[in-house]
Each structure stands twice: as C-alpha cells, then as structure tokens.
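Q: What would this chain look like folded?
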Amino acid sequence: MPLPPKTDYGIGIIGCGGIVNYAHLPAYNAAGFRVLACYDRDPETAERTARQHGIPHVAASIDDLLGDPAIAIVDIAVTPWDQPAIAARAIAAGKHLLCQKPLADRYDDAMRMVALAKQAGVKLAVNQQMRWDAGIQVSRQLIAQGALGVPADCRIEVSIRTPWQMWPWIAASDHLEIMYHSIHYQDALRFLFGEPEAVTSMHSRWPDQIEVGETRTLTVFHFPSDLRVTIDVNHHNWSDDAYARFRFLGTEGIITGTLGLLYDYPTGRVDTLAYQSHSEPLTWHEAALTTHWIPDAFAGPMASLMDAIQTGGEPVTSGADNLGTLRTVFAAYRSAAAGRTIPLSEIVAKGDTPGGDHLGDG
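A: My prediction, written as structure tokens:
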C-alpha cells in the first residue's frame, strides 16, 4: 500500500475495544505509524492495549489525550451514538480525526460533524477500510482501465455465520446488518460504480434468532443507466456451504472473487480475484493477492488522512464523501420500513440547519 511522504504524525486512540487491538494497531505498527497515547473508559482495557502494542502513554481522560500537543490525529473507535460528541471535542482541540463507521446513527449528527470539521479547518476521515481490501482495490484498477466495458450487473453475495456475540451492543441494536455490516459493501460499491439515485431494501430476521435487529438483507442500488447493483446477505448460514463473493459483469469483461476475511472471521484468508475478457471467453486471469482485509486494509484510511493533511486535499473516505454512504444506509432502512424504493434525494437535513433523518423516522 503506498504511503504518503510524511507518516510521523502523533496518533491518539480513543476507544480500545477488539477492533482496535486486532485491526487498527497491528496495521499501524506494520506501516510505521506513531501511536503516542490511548484512552478507554475502562482504564484496565487501555492499560492492556498499551502494553500489548507498545503505546507509551495511557491518557487519564479524553481531555488529557486531546490536550497533548504531540498528538495531531485522533482515531475514534466508539459506538456511533457516542462518537459525535467526542468528535466535536477533538475538532475543538484542533485535531484531525479518523472516525469509526458508521459516522453517526443520525444523519443530522453526521452532517454536523462534517460541517464542524470544515469550519475548524481540520480533516475528518471515516474508517471505511473495505476500499483498501485487496479484491476491491484490484477491481477498482481493472474498472478504471476499462476492463469491464460498461458495468451492467454487479453484486456482492454473502451467506455466513457471524459471531455477533463478539459485539453485544451490536447484537442488541434495533438496526444491525445494514448499519454495521453491509455499510461496508454499500461504501465499496459507491467507490467502484459511483452514486446511485435510489435504494430498495428488504430486511428479515432468522427464525428464533437472539439478535434484535435484521440479520438478512437484500438491497438494490438504482442508477440512471442500465447498471444493476445488488447486495444479498445472510448472517445465519449454519451449514458448511458458506460464501462471501463478488461478481462484476460488464459488456467487455467479468471480475469474480471472494472476500477472504469472512470465511474465518476475524482470522480470514487472502481474497481471490479472477478476470475474464469477453474477447477470450475461455481464459481466466487470476490475480496474485497477498494481503488481508484485517489488518492490512486498516492502514489505508489513516494513510489517506495523512496524505490529505500534507497536501491540503481530502481523504479518500472523507466525512463529506461518507455522507453519500450514509444516505444509502438510511434509505435502505426507510425502504424496508415503507416497502418502497427510496430516492436518495429524500435523505436530507430538515430545515436550514443540520437536523434530520434518524433511523426511526420516515
């Protein structure tokens, strides 16, 4: 993964849960990033994380971490309802920030965070790291080279058994699969194929499931062209016939592959990817992929944020860009509740100031 010229920014971590320990910090250590401090509301969790990853300082409070002039970037990894207030404090302290996805569980809160960062002149990125997963990166390169011709039928299909017990607060959420899982696919498909104009989504639960929210979803992105994009997910496949695959078919070629992480989460395996040209219908070209979604892809959003800081540009997964992903998320929930296709133009702030769409509205 290419890194920007300068990577020695001081990083402070707020939230030391599982994903930070088995994804964020291993990726940062491998990339040579400088993590100077960490904080968690459970001091023992923060101390354990610091010992495990060689972090020199455990902050006594969020204010302690934000007050450290050596810290330029704050990596926030907390629940979406806690994130907006912490982000606002980091912005007020003049820190650049990498926020967890979802950026917020209210669209108006997400808009407000983006506006605050812009007003303060700091960079805000969102940890939509699937864009740096090997299969997605190579697909992006092939599409940019015109290998598909005109994209026409593009889909992600996942049928796995997900250990939701790893995240009890997610298992207890009224809004589960789209908000915390398929948000990755919706963001990656925007990255590959651009902005849809409308979303249709159907949600269901598995018989007698313990989780509160939806665990099976079928989502369709509608485009003004003939492009069809679908995401079909089931998290309760108890059989040994699990799969997590993508298939992008165009007028001149097809890309097929697997998302290796989901075959043995969180250990996973390397993605696979193969390409066939319409002009060579019997020949498949296989990519030699070597990296894993976890932890390798997690260096991507942080590296992109660092690049934006030094160039004055925007991170690949900027907060402003991520509002587009959140519109597809909130449109999916509104579609499932209302039983109709939702134009993304419906997902807007209410009034002249950010206010607006909550998952329970509409």
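The domain at 10-129+296-317 is CATH 3.40.50.720 (Rossmann fold).
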